[in-house]
Protein 1
Amino acid sequence: GIGKTTLIQKVTQALRSSDVPVDGFYTEEVKEGGRRRGFDVVTLSGKRGPLSRVSSDSSASRREYRVGQYVVDLVSFEQLVLPVLRNVNHGSDSEKKICVIDEIGKMELFSQAFIRAVRETLTDPATVVLGTIPVPKGKPLDLVEEIRSRKDVKVFNVS
């Protein structure tokens, strides 16, 4: 609720209007009747799908990935995001690319394939990552702390 995604969207628009190659995804709140029902993943090419939704019942009948009241739709998330990250990582090395990853948080980190793809993207010398990570609270998230402590990463606090 601070405005990280709004900032990411504005930066992305500015980059595109300057003809800078940019790809990636952001997460967007889904509201129904003024109440948050979950989050969607939106790729910069315009594809959209569910990341999570409020669970209607508290008994997990099958293996569910949960963050608070939200059930994470890992299949939808991976189907949308992994091709985007693979495409960025396997593009031409002649020009620098910008990869937007909003966000690298608890819900997204249920995906081991996403974790691998983010690490690969961060180590690609032809790619600059513009990403969002959560402020540390509670149990540290391994990949988030790994990113935060990288020498080639600059962290800005958005407030």
Protein 2
Amino acid sequence: MGYDIERFVGYVNEGLLCSICRDVLEDPLQAPCEHAFCTACIHGWLVRHSNCPEDRQVIDVSLLRPLYRYMKNDLNRLQLHCRNREYGCEMVCSLESIDRHERECEYSQIPCSNAGCTVQIERRNLDGHLAVCEYRSRECPNGCGYTILSAEDTQHNCVAELRTELELLRSEMICRVEEAKHEMESRLDSQRRHMVQKESILQNEIEELKSQMSRMMSDVRSLMAAERQHRQELEQAELEKREL
């Protein structure tokens, strides 16, 4: 359905009226024959018909297109009263900005936010209503901390509520202790695995160093033996030289 034409200030061009509901176009679509409709109106029409309601030309949902830009601009510039005019709002603004205004309008009728309360009240008066609403939440005046949500709750048993609260706190503490215990055990296991892994790596490195040292000692012994052999050969050569 479109916007009630009675809300608009001044003349509204015939081309900006829905061909079905005859109100000012809301979320408009245009057929190939250039007749314009509210989206909700034309979709509802095409459920039962397959032609344009104005000239009876065959149309399909897939053929519908957005309104021409110049027509959309003309539509957006139209001035109209807020829908809360009957409650006292005197705002007149463009169609383009009317939705934004009405979402924030102080004269809008909105439901009380307290659970169980069915009162509809103007937004500007909501704070005053919440302060006295019988469904408002408040703490027990006896100091037990219980949140009173309705008139029946004022007769609650403070001792029972405190006992329940204590049990809840105890359960929560036990859960937290268990969580901390599991987390600590997990960390210790992780550190233990890491240390075992490091120990294995260090042991492998030590074995590799021992192997390298053994090879070096063997090479040293071989070099020393070769040196002794070389010295003996030199001494033998010296003796032979003297004999000659």
Protein 3
Amino acid sequence: ALSQHRSLILVDYVGVGLSTEGPAAGVATTVRQSAADVLSFLDLIGEREIDVLGFSLGGMVAQLVALNADPARLRVRKLILAGTTPSMGEGVLRSKNADVFDVAGAKDVGIETFKTLFFPPSREGLAATEQWWARIHERSEVTSGEKPATWLSQGYADGAQGLKAQSQQLAAWMTVEGTMGEEGSFDRLSGLDIPVLVVNGNKLPNAQLIIYANSSHGGIFQYVSDFAQHVVSFLSF
């Protein structure tokens, strides 16, 4: 939906998602390291001005991409944060949904995992899960001309290295001690004066808030067409 209006750069972090194995140094264990990897990547491909969209953990990384970028090398023009949170600080609450953490590191990911992680336990949530599940499986060797890559940690094929590293990132992000200085965002967001579209949250001074009804963590996938229109509109002004 977005690619009909914008040129997109989709990034998998080193050793995570559909990427190949990470280097000897391993997968990033802090959000700052992941943001530094993204900034290095953007520098290597010669990008000098970008808009950044980050969802969930990616939204944490996106915050530090914007906050830690060297303005002499890269200008982050606008920022879109969806289903995410600033680093730990006064007023930031941990999720009360314990079942999310029970399945977030599952060995095998199926539709039941998606129901728990991204959508509310309601009729609307169930319908949204099934629609998203069908949509992400539209890409195949027949439709795209290439065999889809396998998720790196699927079945713990990588020894769960990627999942463990991302768990460390999340754990540190939710502590004040783990997010001091350039490791976190809480104390620095109020100085981020670029336009920001937030699909939750209220701390940024130049932000617009959108809340999607009857949705949960994966609201942007439940309201995919509306979200795409909101993003395109936001980036156009």
